[in-house]
Write a structure and sequence with these properties.
Elements: H1 2-6, H2 18-27, H3 29-48, H4 61-89, H5 91-97, H6 99-110, H7 115-143, H8 146-173, H9 179-183, H10 185-197, H11 202-207, H12 211-221, H13 230-248, H14 265-283, H15 286-291, H16 293-299, H17 306-327, H18 333-358, H19 369-386, H20 389-395, H21 402-430, H22 433-454
Helix pairs in contact: 2-8, 3-7, 3-8, 3-10, 4-5, 4-7, 4-21, 5-10, 6-7, 6-10, 7-8, 7-20, 7-21, 8-17, 12-13, 14-21, 14-22, 16-17, 17-19, 18-19, 18-22, 21-22
Length: 466
């Protein structure tokens, strides 16, 4: 029975998929480190605004908004650089480079003497994050089999969310000056492991005319050995030849992209749905609230400790991302996006009503409600809007423009990250928490309607298809 389970094509640890899983796990070490940087800020930012700040300078609300939103500026830079360099340098070289700015983040945090140190550090963290959100989905889509691609791609957000939870805990309980030394172990380990165990994808090597290296890479990721049976090797090599033929056809050559390729019917359809997905991802507030979770609970009327509530939400967020990895290749992307966007819209509406009535009535005996509603919101947001974002971005575009169009879409997403991180604390300050939540709920419900009417399923789609 166990042997039958291992033989299933969608089993991550079966013989063919083993090295694909290993590569996915290794490149996601930097995602965990990036998540720690995001999660650590939430409880730490609140400390920065109190007399107990570990720094010699307290922050006001505008400085807080800039420290938070600097991540978005860095993300745009990281997206742009990765999109430009991946086709020239290859995935492996770009993956190595993104370890550097994240390492610099913790150096800036440790030596912070003014708010500018923190802003620059967050911007550097954003460069790494921007690189992750371009490089990882594209790279995974190029070496993973279709029946495990969704699972492996959603591991990106599972790893980020693991890091966010660790960051919440470190920010709450660990000394400000100890955290950098702990976290720096991760980017250093990542750099060494990627250097020795990751190869450029066969698709990239074929596009560069390096056919022998492409074949070696294909055999590596598909775990094809010289001592395998001749029939198994012949089947694998036939698959490689089909890939090579598809990528070297005149109409499919990735280095011969024209302006016309960006205006095909398939491309325009991809742009429209990508726009809705990006808007839902950011204006649902799921990512933004992660950065300001402690402040949100402090203003929600709950009497629970904000830091404890934040850690609970971090655990729920991690669970949501894990569920997404289990279900993405089972139920498909469309079903998860519908459940996610509809559930988030309803949760935000309920949270807005609770915080509104807290201002009128004494609801202290219901202090658990904000944590419960936000848990549902974050869980549902992570099973679709967050985890499926990068899977869909890669799968919905035609082959020739996939890397460029995905890069542009993620750049726009990162720009909205900056916008949301910048205005969210200001909206809470000037509009109040209820109106802020209702506004996000309305936008998310609009996106739910668009998914219901127009989003097509991409599960099992070949990366050689349009």
């Amino acid at each position: 029975m166990f042997e039958r389970f291992l033989a299933r094509p969608n089993c991550l640890v079966n013989r063919r998929n083993r090295y694909q899983l290993l590569a996915t796990v290794l490149i996601n070490i930097i995602c965990i480190a990036h998540g720690i940087g995001i999660g650590w800020l939430s409880p730490t930012l609140r400390k920065f605004q109190t007399p107990e700040t570990p720094l010699s300078f307290p922050l006001d609300v505008k400085e807080v908004s800039w420290v938070g939103s600097a991540l978005g500026i860095g993300s745009v830079i990281g997206n742009s650089l990765s999109g430009l360099l991946i086709s020239q340098l290859g995935s492996k070289t770009c993956l190595l480079f993104i370890a550097l700015p994240h390492s610099c983040l913790w150096i800036m945090v440790y030596f912070a003497r003014s708010v500018e140190f923190l802003i620059v550090g967050r911007m550097l963290a954003g460069i790494t994050g921007g690189g992750i959100y371009i490089l990882h989905p594209l790279f995974i889509s190029e070496f993973c089999d279709a029946n495990i691609r969704g699972t492996c791609a959603t591991m990106v957000m599972l790893s980020v969310n693991t890091g966010i939870l660790i960051g919440y805990i470190l920010g709450t309980y660990a000394s400000y000056y100890v955290v950098p030394f702990i976290v720096l172990i991760l980017p250093l380990s990542y750099f060494i492991l990627v250097l020795f165990f990751i190869r450029d994808s066969p698709m990239h090597l074929i596009s560069k005319g390096k056919f022998a290296a492409a074949e070696a890479s294909f055999r590596y990721y598909k775990n094809i050995k010289d001592n395998d049976s001749l029939s198994d090797q012949a089947t694998a090599m036939a698959e490689f030849k089909d890939m090579k033929l598809a990528l070297t056809r005149e109409d499919n050559q990735l280095d011969k992209v024209t302006v016309k390729d960006f205006f095909t019917r398939a491309a325009i359809r991809g742009y429209g749905m990508a726009a809705v997905i990006v808007i839902a991802n950011q204006f649902s507030g799921v990512f933004t609230m992660v950065n300001y979770m402690t402040d949100i609970f402090a203003k929600s009327g709950s009497t629970m400790d904000p830091n404890t509530s934040t850690i609970i939400i971090g655990s729920v967020q991690l669970f949501g991302a894990y569920v997404s990895t289990l279900l993405c290749d089972v139920f498909g992307r469309r079903a998860l996006m519908l459940v996610s966007s509809g559930g988030v819209a309803l949760s935000l509406t309920c949270f807005g009503f609770f915080t509104y009535f807290t201002q009128i009535y004494d609801l202290s005996q219901w202090s658990w409600v904000p944590a419960a509603i936000m848990s549902v919101d974050i869980f549902l947001g992570n099973i679709g809007l967050v985890s499926c974002l990068f899977v869909l971005m890669v799968e919905m575009y035609p082959l020739k423009i996939r890397a460029r169009a995905t890069s542009i879409s993620i750049v726009i997403c990162s720009s909205l990250v900056f916008l949301m991180l910048n205005i969210f604390p200001l909206c809470m300050h000037y509009w109040g928490l209820p109106t802020t939540m209702w506004s996000m709920a309305g936008i998310t419900f609009f996106c739910f309607t668009c998914f219901l009417l127009f989003l097509k399923e991409t599960k099992g789609k070949s990366m050689l298809e349009d």
